[in-house]
Write a structure and sequence with these properties.
The chain has two helices and six strands; from the N terminus they run H-E-H-E-E-E-E-E. It has 149 residues and is of the alpha+beta class. It has one domain. Strand 5 and strand 6 form a beta hairpin. The N and C termini lie far apart (40 Å).
């Protein structure tokens, strides 16, 4: 990788991580969440190269663990999960709880097949702590990550 490009892309990922952390910092973790989410790759640079896609996947997983740590005091009142999409701009970390909007809680993950292996996340996700699920649709496959039950 060209050193100039490497320097630029590393700055980009640092900026994206800071942006996610700032979003978490603004949350009142004692309030309700209606599928609140943030994206680790707002500009979609993870799509440009395999190493960028991996970095986006790693950042998504890192930020999922941050979401879990800031809400762990609430126990099972809150769900944290991540979606990893083919278009990295659509990958996201979610926090969800019972809420006055009537959104389903707990989120049921309908159509997700858990225990998926053989994906690009196998080398990233700690399977002793988290599990990977696959949701197949006509347009794309989506990987889910959540804490083991």
């Amino acid at each position: 990788m060209d050193r100039r490009y490497e320097k630029r892309i590393n700055r980009y990922w640092e900026k994206m991580e800071a942006r996610c952390r700032e979003a978490f910092d603004r949350l009142d973790t004692n309030e309700w969440f209606d599928l609140w989410h943030t994206h680790p790759d707002w500009d979609g640079k993870g799509n440009s190269r395999p190493e960028n896609r991996r970095r986006c996947d790693e950042l998504t997983y890192e930020m999922l663990k941050v979401a879990e740590s800031i809400t762990e005091h609430r126990g099972c009142e809150v769900q944290c999960f991540a979606l990893v999409k083919e278009d990295t701009m659509d990958s996201s970390i979610y926090i969800h709880s019972e809420n006055p909007n009537g959104s389903e809680f707990p989120f049921q993950y309908e159509g997700v097949v858990w225990g998926h292996s053989g994906s690009r996340l196998d080398q990233i996700v700690d399977l002793a702590v988290h599990e990977i699920g696959l949701f197949k649709s006509e347009s794309e496959n989506t990987l889910f990550i959540r804490k083991n039950a």
